[in-house]
Amino acid sequence: MNAMAGAHCWYAETRIGQGYGKADIGGPFVLLDQNGKTRSDMDFRGKHMFMYFGFTYCPDICPNEMMRMKQILSLLDKMHVSDKIVPIFITIDPERDGPLQLKEYLSDWDSRIVGLTGTPDQIKDVCQKYRVYHSKSTLGNNPGDYLIDHSILFYMLDPQGNFVDYFGKSLSIEEIAMKIFKYVSGALTRVCSPNSVASKSIDHLLPPLKEE
Ligand SMILES: [Cu+2]
User: Fold this and answer.
1) Which residues does Cu cation bind (predicted)?
2) How far is the CA of 20 from the centre of ligand 1 (A)?
3) Which of 30, 91, 184, 204 is deepest in the core (most CB within 10 A)?
4) Percent of the chain with pLDDT over 90
């Protein structure tokens, strides 16, 4: 089967920017890493960004996804391509996830993962650019006691910072690692779903685009 035949590139349909070739997802950011160093998306040019948005106080979803990220990284090690990507964890909880908190959390998973945080406005901005759904729900009377419901996706960007693909929960770590391998080796260049499932599956995971 030719996977590209009749392929459905979902981001081509969801127009937010103007002009051809401009991805709907992604964009510049300037944040702080887990060592307190200012990092921008430009720092990662030349490598594929492999990103996840979550929060360190997440009781179950994020630990599960971080375990997957760690396992994917070790599969990429075995494929000898892990140096072609930079794994990134961006917090959606800037109030609680400062650099130190991120450092402690990420050292439990994989020290190669770049943790990023920022001011609430900076995080809001990057979440909008990557269309990350997140919604806070308080647990009790203490305002610091809350959970955040959020989208569960890995994002893949190319070495120029253009969005190329996302990987949801339905994909196994082996499938994700194989896709990443294909992207970094040039066998795949952008997201196209051979069965048009992608456009449907991501639309209810992401907040609606604002037509502005
Ligand atoms: Cu989470």
Assistant:
1) 58, 62, 150
2) 34
3) 91
4) 71
Please indicate if the annotation marks 134 as binding a ligand.
Answer: no
Task: Tell me the CA–centroid distance for residue 146 and ligand 1, in Å.
Answer: 12
Cα of 56 to ligand 1 centre, how many Å? Answer: 7
Mean pLDDT over all residues of the chain?
83
pLDDT score for 138 = 87
The annotation status of 9 as a binding-site residue, yes or no, is no
- Between CA 63 and CA 69 the distance in angstroms is 10
**CA of 91 relative to ligand 1 center, distance in Å:** 9
Q: Tell me, in angstroms, the distance from the centre of ligand 1 to residue 84's CA.
A: 26
Tell me yes or no: is domain 10-18+26-138+146-203 CATH 3.40.30.10: yes
pLDDT digits (tens, 9 = 90+) for 46-85: 999 999 999 999 999 999 999 999 999 999 999 999 999 9
Look up the pTM and report it. Answer: 0.80
